[in-house]
Design brief:
About 30% of the residues lie in helices and about 25% in strands. With about 250 residues, the chain is an alpha/beta fold. It has a 6-stranded mixed β-sheet, sandwiched between helices. Strands 2-1-4-5 form a 4-stranded antiparallel β-sheet, with helices on one face. α4 runs parallel beside α5. About 35% of the residues are buried.
């Protein structure tokens, strides 16, 4: 589903402050895999996610999604495959629009836009039923402006919005970093359920080793722009959470 071949990303090349953020990474991720990437600050994990998303382009190497070379495609051209949830809960929604309007825009994210965003009763019911799965009581507040919600509520809704337009790849960029523990748990449970229910190929970047241990089918550790460890959970049933902490000792 996602193939990275000899991928490099260098910033300020040839200058005194040159940074080799990603150094020759080779990585294949199968359809439906939930990959968790951990690593210290500056390890290259966020740059790697940006290279998949297309928000930065590689210095060399290739990126393929669904057997198509997307190496030179801009971020908006990859949106037919990719949905992304950012660390900041405010990044994925329009504050001044209602919850309902935000969901409608998400549903037509990659479609041609007309003069009307076309909300009918069937769509309202779909949105209410979808939101009700969160158990947050927001299904009765779909006309409420998104900006009046808490960060945890917005992040959970952003996750639901991400699958409204039939994406195939879900990128989670530290989605719980700014949330309280209860909201973080709801967001991660929701992400895990969506990944499973929709067969999404998912990449999660996190500093939370508890999340890394509890979620995902594969754990990757990065350091200095390379992959240090690549663990298939099914092949290491005895892996303990403390083992992940030992990686950073």
């Amino acid at each position: 589903m996602i193939t990275l071949s000899n991928l490099h990303k260098t910033y300020n090349k040839g200058k005194a402050n040159q940074v080799n953020a990603v150094n020759g990474v080779d990585l294949s991720i199968k359809k439906g895999e939930f990959v968790v990437i951990v690593g210290a600050n500056g390890s290259g994990k966020t740059t790697l996610l940006n290279l998949v998303a297309g928000s930065v382009l590689p210095t060399s190497g290739t990126v393929s999604i669904d057997n198509e070379d997307v190496t030179k495609l801009a971020e908006y051209d990859r949106s037919k495959w990719i949905a992304r949830v950012f660390q900041n809960p405010l990044s994925g929604t329009a504050s001044d629009l209602s919850i309902l309007d935000n969901f409608r825009l998400a549903a037509i994210r990659t479609q041609p836009k007309g003069l009307s965003i076309g909300i009918d009763n069937a769509f309202k019911k779909k949105v209410k039923d979808t939101i009700a799965t969160l158990g947050m009581g927001l299904e009765g507040k779909i006309e409420q402006p998104m900006g009046t919600l808490s960060g945890g509520q917005r992040q959970a809704l952003t996750l639901l919005m991400s699958v409204m337009d039939n994406c195939k790849v879900l990128l989670l960029d530290e989605p719980t970093a700014a949330l309280d523990p209860r909201s973080a748990e709801i967001v991660m449970r929701t992400a895990n359920k969506l990944a499973h229910d929709f067969g999404l190929t998912t990449i999660l970047i996190t500093h939370n080793l508890k999340e890394a241990y509890n979620y995902g089918t594969r754990i990757i550790q990065m350091g200095e722009g390379i992959i240090l460890k690549d663990i298939e959970r099914s092949t290491q049933p005895d892996l303990k959470q403390t083992d992940l902490y030992d990686w950073f000792s």
